[in-house]
Recover the amino acids of this structure.
């Protein structure tokens, strides 16, 4: 689908590649109609910088984000006749400072930040998606007593998941992000984990989904999971089923980290959503029907049968896309999930 709401560039994100302009030009080349630029907000403690950011400081990240907004709006204007560029940001919640600083950043840039991708990347101030070792540290930070180390891990996994969803809920409450970013990133290294097996975390997840639906958020279906070895996009089938059952709305994101990642795995994502029987997709637009978000954009439903759009005919499927339906079916069967499409609409 010619829409994406979540992207990064090497110019403003050290684990990405290419310039922001390269990303926009590639989106134009592929036929995207709406493309969101959403670099990470600054991090404010030296200990929260990543290895690839050696030599940088929190102050330099603050300046880098200001430079991103300048360049994003330049590109928005320069290519307005060819593509609708949306200028947003992706959240961080490591400590309370991040929430306070984000509030200030939004106030200072109220006319320049058009939307928020609300994401959580840390639990107990430890990154959960940087590498497996960091994830394990975050997981074990949820152990309350030495005795729990001798359990099979279910107890502290439940606490880990609950901590993730509690942090997510606080971010949702405070900022009402228009796009909910990779909702189930907490199981990045455990894609077959079923939240329903952890009752406390499961209830918190459903609480978060209901809250986001109530203020009108769009839940991104994020292709990056396929790049990281999943057989589905984020979120997994169990979470998509809850979102749809509760009346939530889905939007697409490639979560590209450079021009070579623009539109990557969209064919697989199309097959995944078709397998689930998803009949509606949504995107953000400047055109208001009276239901605009507080930052000014509005949700719009993709007209017609989204899977019939000409965009898909131009999409070159990767090798992984071949037989995606069979892969997904095998995955769902192994995980004990339904092989039947989710019935909606």
């Amino acid at each position: 689908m010619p829409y994406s709401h979540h992207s990064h560039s090497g110019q403003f994100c050290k684990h990405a590649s290419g310039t922001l302009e390269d990303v926009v030009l590639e989106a134009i080349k592929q036929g995207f109609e709406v493309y969101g630029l959403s670099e990470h907000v600054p991090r404010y403690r030296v200990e929260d910088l990543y290895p690839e950011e050696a030599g940088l400081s929190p102050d330099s990240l603050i300046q880098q984000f200001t430079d991103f907004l300048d360049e994003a709006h330049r590109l928005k204007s320069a290519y307005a006749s060819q593509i609708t560029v949306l200028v947003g940001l992706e959240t961080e919640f490591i400590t309370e400072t991040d929430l306070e600083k984000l509030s200030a950043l939004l106030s200072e840039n109220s006319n320049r930040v058009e939307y928020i991708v609300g994401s959580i990347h840390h639990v107990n101030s430890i990154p959960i998606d940087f590498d497996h070792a960091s994830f394990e540290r975050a997981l074990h930070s949820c152990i309350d007593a030495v005795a729990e180390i001798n359990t099979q891990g279910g107890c502290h996994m439940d606490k880990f998941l609950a901590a993730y969803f509690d942090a997510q809920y606080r971010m949702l409450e405070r900022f009402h992000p228009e796009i909910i970013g990779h909702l189930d990133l907490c199981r990045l290294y455990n894609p077959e984990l079923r939240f329903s097996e952890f009752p406390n975390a499961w209830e918190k997840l459903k609480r978060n989904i209901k809250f986001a639906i109530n203020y009108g958020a769009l839940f991104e279906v994020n292709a990056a999971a396929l790049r990281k070895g999943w057989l589905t996009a984020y979120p997994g089938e169990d979470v998509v089923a809850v979102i749809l059952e509760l009346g939530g709305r889905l939007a697409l994101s490639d979560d590209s980290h450079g021009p070579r990642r623009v539109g990557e795995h969209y064919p697989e994502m199309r097959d995944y959503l078709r397998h689930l029987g998803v009949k509606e997709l949504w995107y953000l637009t400047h055109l208001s029907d009276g239901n605009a978000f507080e930052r000014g954009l509005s949700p719009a439903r993709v007209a017609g049968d989204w899977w019939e759009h000409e965009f898909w005919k131009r999409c070159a499927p990767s090798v992984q896309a071949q037989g995606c339906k069979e892969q997904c079916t095998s995955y769902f069967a192994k995980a004990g999930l339904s092989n039947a499409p989710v019935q909606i609409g």
